[in-house]
Amino acid sequence: MPPSHLAPFAPSPSRRYLCLEEREEIALLLAQNIGLREIARRLGRAASTISREIRRNVATRAGGFEYRATTAQWHAERSARRPKAAKLATNARLRQYVQDRLSGQISRLDGSVMAGPDVAWKGRRHGPRQPRRWAKAWSPEQISNRLWVDFPGDETMRISHEAIYQALYIQGRGALRRELTACLRTGRALRVPRARTAGRGKSFVTPDIMISERPAEAADRAVPGHWEGDLIIGLGRSAIGTLVERQTRFTLLLHLPRMPGHGESPRLKNGPPLAGHGAEAVRDAIMRSIIQLPKHLRRSLSWDQGAEMARHAELTVAADLPVYFCDPHSPWQRGTNENTNGLLRQYFPKGTDLSLHGPDELEAVVAALNGRPRKTLGWRTPAEALDAVLANPETGHVATTS
């Protein structure tokens, strides 16, 4: 079944595809030992297009690698035939690998399974917010690139992230169940276009602790130990604290239980912070988590200008951790933390009661998050990156800038 642009009655193919005349020109120029970039310049194509064309459509029957225009055209037409059997439908081992990392259950630190909320898949996301299904929830891009790490010599264990998305979102494109879309971080049942996408300062924030005064070494992530923090807020002002290390993306979660007396009477303006994320509670939670780290991993902490950090001076003294504050309405100054908070919404959706999750559940979620490979880490996990930092004695030295 040839595609429409290759049918005998079809008009000339668009400039998106190389035509036979261009392939003949490529073959002639290669015979003259002209480089790929010069060939691309003469044809008005990208050098990557020429390189990919030669790699995919070279003639190999004679035992060598010789580019012939007619053979290359035959290869291109054969590759363009549709329909094709989806790779996930024909490779059971690859399909199982993808499904395990999309929907696999998360575990506690001792290895026992943490089931999470029991949520039925409804095939849509509209309507009242509800708890989300807990899973390993690797993204298709993470799965695609991690295959190169886990199976470096097995060419059968390769798939693009787009093929995984199509298997989830397009009916009949693969063997993945449609309900696995609930395991994606967005939880969308349908794909959506990508293009959709003046507060007062606090008295405890002074110019000398603004983020502009943070050491320059924190900006380029060359030195570990610089953290970003924030709260994610849920139903009834429930909250969970998040800390993310800028270099390794290692994440810590702060358990902020509600205080005694919460909900027993109407909330009082300027009353005690019974919701559990007042300045004292946040200070103590950060100290409990951060004090366990070695000194060279406690260089600074960046936070927004929330009232929960009113006791930052006590934190700086007790934990030897300088605190810096971002400018108002500037979440990009804590980009690593904002990205991580988005990942955590997979497990703690907006509009749900976060106080229901105890320390054990937070440990399970953070273990799952720190065990997911990251593109920015070369597809290593944050846990692997932190282990490398702890094992390297050079991390104890502070980089200097001239």
Structural features, described:
- The protein is of the alpha/beta class and 402 residues long.
- It folds into 3 domains: 20-81; 87-183, no CATH class; 216-261 and 273-391, Nucleotidyltransferase, domain 5 (2-Layer Sandwich), CATH 3.30.420.
- 32% of the residues lie in helices and 8% in strands.
- A 5-stranded mixed sheet has the order 5-4-3-6-7, with helices on both faces.
- Helix 1 crosses helix 4, helix 2 (36-43) packs across helix 3 and helix 9 runs parallel beside helix 10.
- It is elongated, with a radius of gyration of 27 Å.
- This is IS30 family transposase.
- Residues 211-390 form the Integrase catalytic domain.
- GO terms for molecular function: DNA binding; transposase activity.
Show the helix and strand layout.
Layout (H helix, E strand, L loop, with lengths): L19 H12 L4 H8 L3 H11 L11 H11 L7 H4 L1 H12 L2 E2 L5 E2 L25 H11 L10 H9 L56 E8 L5 E7 L5 E5 L23 H12 L9 E4 L8 H8 L3 E3 L9 H10 L14 H12 L11 H10 L11
Helix pairs in contact: 1-4, 2-3, 3-4, 7-8, 9-10
**Order of strands across the biggest sheet?**
5-4-3-6-7
In whole angstroms, how far apart are the ends? 65 Å
Dominant shape: elongated
Mean pLDDT: 84
Number of strands: 7
Q: List low-confidence stretches.
A: 395-402
What would CATH call the homologous superfamily of the largest domain?
Ribonuclease H-like superfamily/Ribonuclease H
Count the DSSP helices. Answer: 13
Instruction: Label the structural class.
Output: alpha/beta
Largest sheet: 5 strands, mixed
By CATH, the topology of the largest domain is: Nucleotidyltransferase, domain 5
Question: Which bin fits the share of residues in helices?
Answer: 25-40%
- Topology as H/E string? HHHHHHEEHHEEEHEHEHHH
Broad CATH class of the largest domain: Alpha Beta
CATH structural architecture of the largest domain: 2-Layer Sandwich
Radius of gyration: 27 Å
Taken as a percent bin, the fraction of beta residues is 5-15%
Function: Required for the transposition of the insertion element.
Family: Belongs to the transposase IS30 family.
Domain Integrase catalytic: 211-390
Keywords: DNA recombination, DNA-binding, Transposition
